[in-house]
């Protein structure tokens, strides 16, 4: 039995298991009590007053988070029921079915409490789900009352079928709830001229987008990108631009968001924001974040961004200016990440950057700890340099800015925290700096500078010592390629054993030799 369809529509943040248990505990109330108290008012006072108390305690965003947590619990329980059913644990199946029944009813009641108005389609789905859950509970109870293996075997397929139907209705209900919530927020943005209401709606929309790609698709499908760009075209909402752009960056991680962006001339709007010097740095930084998102080389659906090429020179110029004037590491990271992605997106960007003295600006930034203070920022810088290094004119710019020295330092990038993401960033810095050196060393002047800075011994050390390269195979391949290029330019810089093992054989043979080396060899 496949898992219920909900998890694809939800984003579960990884947290400590005890903390997760503590958060979920209040929702895991005793089943018998739930059955007795279901739909019963806490006091004899009017329902309106009870509703007022509930709505004053939580915002819409909090209520939605509560709903999503409840939905996650139900989804998990349905998956566990399928597992117990497979093992014929009928007692467990029944008790968990009762619990799911209670959670479903509670979730529906909670949602209806804070929405107060549901569509006919919603009511029909709710009834279908509740009825099917009741049928499911009754069915599993009957299974407990027989011990005949043949009868249980015949009933098992019916239980499986009912479980699948429950999961299907449940998934449809959650999909409809999230769609209606997105529609409600977008209606607020569309109809309200109030700064406060618009800010609140955009904030809630951002929270919704953080729940995962499926939510982003729903928002995009309901016109979220169109509504947000409408805000970015109104001067009266200027103070909301950073928040709105941040929400756009989240939504545009999915293809539907990208298509909507193209339809509303979103690239032109972003170019206008980036080139308008009257906007705050925060606004420029968030616009850069949207550019970085939509040009990500990891996305497979950026080819249709034809309008990007029309505005690329303006965008690249604004981004390198933002890199130069960035007041913090975060702003520099967003601007440089956008530039790095653009250099993959189109080679013309590298030529534009060369004309804008980008090499000098980026090399200078690497000496400024206020702007380049993490391996993530250095990763973006070296990515740009690696992509620019295919241009012959880039070599002289690197020499003038002492770029070879910087690349040498980047070869030995190390993580200070040991954080896996940071370690991975360090490996990318090492790999790309080796690639850049290999490409630039076709120029004799660069090769000579690299040799004088003891680049050959450094590359040999990286090849022979797995710990120096963080046990990364991609770093090893890049270092072998750079070493071979420098060996051609300066064959006297290698010991005979290094030449015989690292340069003379086929690259794959040298690679296999180095990956099998023990630390004691070094």
From TrEMBL:
GO terms for biological process: apical protein localization; asymmetric cell division; establishment of mitotic spindle orientation; regulation of asymmetric cell division. It comes from the Eukaryota. Residues 70-522 form the Protein inscuteable homologue C-terminal domain. GO terms for cellular component: apical cortex. Residues 13-57 form the Protein inscuteable homologue LGN-binding domain. SMART domains: ARM (SM00185). One of its GO terms (molecular function) is cytoskeletal anchor activity. InterPro entries: ARM-like, ARM-type_fold, Armadillo, Insc_C, INSC_LBD, INSC_LBD_sf, Inscuteable. Pfam families: Insc_C, INSC_LBD. PANTHER family: INSCUTEABLE (PTHR21386), PROTEIN INSCUTEABLE HOMOLOG (PTHR21386:SF0). This is INSC protein. It comes from Sylvietta virens. The gene is Insc.
């Amino acid at each position: 039995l496949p898992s219920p369809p909900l998890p694809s529509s939800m984003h579960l943040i990884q947290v400590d298991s005890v903390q997760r248990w503590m958060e979920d505990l209040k929702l895991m109330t005793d089943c018998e009590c739930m059955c007795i108290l279901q739909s019963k008012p806490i006091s004899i006072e009017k329902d309106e007053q009870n509703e007022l108390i509930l709505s004053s305690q939580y915002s819409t965003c909090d209520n939605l988070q509560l709903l999503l947590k409840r939905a996650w619990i139900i989804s998990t329980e349905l998956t566990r029921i399928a597992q117990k059913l497979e093992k014929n644990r009928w007692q467990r199946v029944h008790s968990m079915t009762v619990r799911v029944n209670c959670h479903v009813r509670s979730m529906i009641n909670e949602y209806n409490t804070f929405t107060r108005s549901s569509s006919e389609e919603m009511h029909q789905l709710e009834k279908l789900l509740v009825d099917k859950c009741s049928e499911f509970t009754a069915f599993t109870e009957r299974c407990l009352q027989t011990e005949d293996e043949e009868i249980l075997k015949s009933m098992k397929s019916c239980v499986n079928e009912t479980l699948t139907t429950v999961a299907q209705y449940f998934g449809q209900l959650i999909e409809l709830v999230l769609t209606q919530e997105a529609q409600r927020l977008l209606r607020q943005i569309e109809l309200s001229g109030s700064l406060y209401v618009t800010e609140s709606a955009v904030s809630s929309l951002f929270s919704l987008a953080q729940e995962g790609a499926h939510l982003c698709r729903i928002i995009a499908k309901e016109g979220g990108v169109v509504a947000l760009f409408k805000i970015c075209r109104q001067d009266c909402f200027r103070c909301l631009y950073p928040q709105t752009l941040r929400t756009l960056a989240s939504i545009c991680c999915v293809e539907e968001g990208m298509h909507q962006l193209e339809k509303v001339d979103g690239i032109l709007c972003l170019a206008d924001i980036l080139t308008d010097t009257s906007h705050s740095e925060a606004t420029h930084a968030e616009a850069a974040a949207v550019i970085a998102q939509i040009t990500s080389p990891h996305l497979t659906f950026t080819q249709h961004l034809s309008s990007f090429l029309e505005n690329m020179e303006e965008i690249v110029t604004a981004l390198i200016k933002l890199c130069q004037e960035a007041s913090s590491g975060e702003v520099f990271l967003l601007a440089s990440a956008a530039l790095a992605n653009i250099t993959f997106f189109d080679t013309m960007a590298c030529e534009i950057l060369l004309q804008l003295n980008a090499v000098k600006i980026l090399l200078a930034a690497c000496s400024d700890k206020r702007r380049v203070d993490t391996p993530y920022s250095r990763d973006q810088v070296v990515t740009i340099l690696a992509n620019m290094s295919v241009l012959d004119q880039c070599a002289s710019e690197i020499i003038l800015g002492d770029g070879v020295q910087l690349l040498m330092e980047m070869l030995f990038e190390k993580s200070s925290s040991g954080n896996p993401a940071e370690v991975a960033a360090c490996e990318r810095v090492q790999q790309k700096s080796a690639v850049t050196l290999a490409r630039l060393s076709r120029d004799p002047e660069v090769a000579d500078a690299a040799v004088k800075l003891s680049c050959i011994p450094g590359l040999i050390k990286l090849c022979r010592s797995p710990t120096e390269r963080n046990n990364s195979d991609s770093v090893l391949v890049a270092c072998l390629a750079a070493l071979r290029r420098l060996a051609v330019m300066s064959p006297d810089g290698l010991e005979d054993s290094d030449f015989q093992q690292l340069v003379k054989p086929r690259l794959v043979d040298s690679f296999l030799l180095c990956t099998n080396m023990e630390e004691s060899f070094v």
